[in-house]
């Protein structure tokens, strides 16, 4: 399988990892398999459970929330960025993440992620608002209704559940999360290690060389961490 980048449009850390990836490793970004990570609503959670998957979630503590505000402010200043914190009111994360799948079908997935990040973290807009999705679609030159109503499309809903199952199989418990073979890297500060691991691996078209055997998979390995920040870590 190709190296994988699990991203969430909800997480400021995922936004920062995206920016670092595109600014410093654009060629690698084009070779990654991008997979959305989002908290399922009741409908998606039910379908996920019926498919044998799971998603662990606990509410973030006040202390952790305050730490994240401080930490993200520090990280954005290091990068010369300004952040506008959005306010999430009864969010449905299928709205932007299934809209990503719809945009990706039209060859606009990477550009959609760029615009959605900009809308949320630089402009403080509500990306769970279907009107905002329609506006991003227009900016992409796509039909507004397709993205605005992506969460109502049964086929996109099914693909969203498939994305959640893939996340569960890869043992993803937070974002940004990178996977290369059996190696996993969690957090924006692990991007460099992920890049180094991928760069050290011969490309499929390269001459084969000696390789150390990969460790065996842990039996019954599943995703989920009851202490994670629900997509913000």
UniProtKB/TrEMBL annotation:
It comes from the Bacteria. GO terms for molecular function: 2-hydroxychromene-2-carboxylate isomerase activity; glutathione peroxidase activity; glutathione transferase activity. Its EC number is 5.99.1.4. The keyword Isomerase applies. Residues 201-233 are annotated as: Disordered. GO terms for biological process: glutathione metabolic process. Gene3D superfamilies: Glutaredoxin (3.40.30.10). Keywords: Isomerase. Residues 5-198 form the DSBA-like thioredoxin domain. The keyword RNA-binding does not apply. Belongs to the GST superfamily. NadH family. PANTHER family: GLUTATHIONE S-TRANSFERASE KAPPA, GLUTATHIONE S-TRANSFERASE KAPPA 1. This is 2-hydroxychromene-2-carboxylate isomerase.
């Amino acid at each position: 399988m190709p190296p994988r980048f699990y991203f969430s449009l909800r997480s400021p850390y995922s936004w920062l990892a995206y920016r670092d990836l595109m600014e410093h490793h654009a060629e690698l970004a084009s070779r990654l398999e991008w997979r959305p990570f989002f908290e399922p609503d009741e409908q998606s959670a039910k379908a996920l459970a019926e498919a044998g998957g799971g998603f662990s979630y606990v509410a973030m503590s006040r202390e952790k929330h305050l730490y994240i505000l401080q930490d993200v402010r520090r990280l954005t200043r290091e990068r010369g960025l300004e952040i506008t914190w959005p306010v999430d009111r009864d969010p449905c994360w299928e709205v932007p993440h299934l809209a990503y799948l719809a945009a990706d079908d039209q060859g606009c997935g990477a550009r959609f992620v760029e615009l959605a990040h900009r809308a949320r973290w630089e402009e403080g807009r509500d990306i769970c608002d279907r009107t905002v999705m329609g506006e991003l679609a227009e900016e992409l030159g796509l039909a507004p209704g397709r993205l605005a109503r992506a969460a109502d499309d049964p086929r996109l809903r099914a693909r969203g559940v498939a994305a959640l199952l893939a996340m569960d199989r890869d043992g993803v418990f937070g974002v940004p999360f990178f996977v290369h073979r059996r190696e996993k890297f969690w957090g924006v500060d692990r991007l460099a290690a992920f890049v180094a691991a991928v760069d050290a691996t011969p490309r499929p078209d390269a001459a084969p060389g000696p390789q150390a055997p990969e460790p065996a998979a842990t039996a019954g390995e599943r995703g989920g961490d009851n202490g994670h920040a629900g997509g913000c870590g």
